[in-house]
Design a protein that fits this description.
Number of helices: 14
Number of strands: 24
Bound molecules: flavin-adenine dinucleotide
Structural class: alpha+beta
CATH architecture of one domain: 3-Layer(bba) Sandwich
Distance between the termini: 51 Å
Radius of gyration: 25 Å
CATH superfamily of one domain: FAD/NAD(P)-binding domain
Helix content: 25-40%
Shape: globular
CATH class of one domain: Alpha Beta
CATH topology of one domain: FAD/NAD(P)-binding domain
Amino acid sequence: MLKFPVLIVGAGPVGVMAAHMLSGLGVPSLVVERRLERSTAPKAHAVNSRTLEICEQVGIPARSIRQAGAAAEQAGWVHFVTDLAGTSFGSLPYERQGDTALADTPFPLINIAQPLFENLLSEHLESCPDVSIWRGCELIEYAETEAGIIATVQMRGASQPVQIASQYIIAADGAGSTMRKLAGVALEGLANLDHFLMIHFEADLSKLVEGRPGVLHFLLNQENSGVLICYEAQKTWVLMHSYDPTQETLADYDQARTHALVEQAVGKSISDLKIRNISPWSMCAEVAQSYRKGRIFFAGDAAHRFPPTGGLGLNTGIADAHNLTWKLARVLNGIGSDALLDSYQAERRPVAEINTTQSLENASTLLHLLAALFKGEGAQAEAHFLARKAAPEKYPEIAEAVELQRAHFDSFNLQIGYRYTSDALINPAPQAQSADVPTSHYIPTYAVGVRLPHWWIEQDGTRQSSHVLLSPTTFTLWLDEAALPLFTAEQKSSSAFNLVVQGRDFSDPDTSWAARTGLEETGALLVRPDGHIAWRCETLPKNPSAYTEERIDEILAAMPAPIESENKE
Ligand SMILES: Cc1cc2nc3c(=O)[nH]c(=O)nc-3n(C[C@H](O)[C@H](O)[C@H](O)COP(=O)(O)OP(=O)(O)OC[C@H]3O[C@@H](n4cnc5c(N)ncnc54)[C@H](O)[C@@H]3O)c2cc1C
């Protein structure tokens, strides 16, 4: 029987990233993927700042993703239109793609079609040691024992299934997760809220959108409402078309009908139109009841199914993998407890709940716009809409309804401002409730549970993000050089953590350590391998290395003793 410490089920973006991260942590893994070829469905387009920060940290340069993605000038807008060539009812900026985001992240959001993003991830994975990928290989069942897990996988074309032994499984097998079903883990929330056909087509519409470029074009008309997603204006588009599966099936959408639908959405005939694929999907707002079942951990769409109105699915999944993998590595190396693995659910599930709530809210806020445009029935409704279409500027309620959509397209705080509460942190603040978490407004804080904020530092005469000093494999203790005399020469090189010292390793051109962090000059921040602040120490005591190592042991045991004086921000 083949043995791997970690078996990853599913080579979507989350499974591939998990393999990448484990490789960087020195943990071998096997990824099984039931498809022979990667999906070409464009699906996700928004790869947000946090995902880019994580990619950069694990060795996938954000620059290469930017080069493959759309330019901000092309993808920086959302439009509300009758059709692509028709009347506009209003526009909003699409997320933080410009330089203004650079105060809070080194990498503003990029629009890139999911297959292009996945290509980059896979290319980088090829150079990662200790990763095997079996394509055309489906996990069909598993059995858990005290010593580990035996998974049964079926290779396409093989007469017999194969068994694989592992210590843990990461189930990154997507929204329909076989692993979730086999493990008997239910989803909580709302299923089948709406049904869509994702019509992937190729056409060069770049001339048509020259004067009104954008990534999302919401189609508001009486015959063919939906959304056009522009991945590459010269080539890659999706029409998201709402349909009722109790009245129609996929077979009702033949080439002629689909062509007509796309041309209606675009508002003109298209000579080079090619329909690449039509796939049905249902909008759900669900989170797995449990992110862990014994030795199985659910990540990505296997753990949460968001409405796409938020662009958070893939991004949340990659942050799941980032949270989980360093913990698995510690436990597999015998320096983390099983309780540390429980903190995965405690930290990541609330994030998914908040993102589900906001994605759902975004979907329902669109109703305000529909209400402003459509009123009444029959001829009355038509007259109401036609009047607004002829002169939208005469109806201020349309602009007001467009303005209400702003948070839908600016979820910066949800993307980078989430904060954890768990036993793998020392004195975290209580869990925030969905309603108290702003969607857009991000305020950098140096509190326990948040990811260490980005700020611009100087290092060897170069302006860099503070994030370049984060280690993906070990804990980092950040402090000012004022605290350095507390350490003996020997203690400055502890094997339990890296020391990053302001004044020695970098300088802050903007403010002092105390003003930035709210700590004493001799205070410190302990940052985990995933970049989240695990402990704020107001003032380091004498023999700070031993004291810090004790805190790290508590974090890895997920049993921190409360330290009353250190719970301030
Ligand atoms: C139209 C649309 C737009 C979207 N836009 C965005 C966006 O802008 N930003 C964003 O963040 N998200 C977006 N999303 C969501 C995003 O596409 C998903 O969240 C993302 O693909 C989830 O990645 P994953 O790796 O968890 O799952 P998947 O991509 O579904 O990958 C799961 C893999 O597991 C494999 N698998 C399943 N079962 C087995 C088995 N038993 N054995 C072996 N392999 C198995 C599957 O073949 C698949 O390859 C969008 C989705 C849609 C539909």
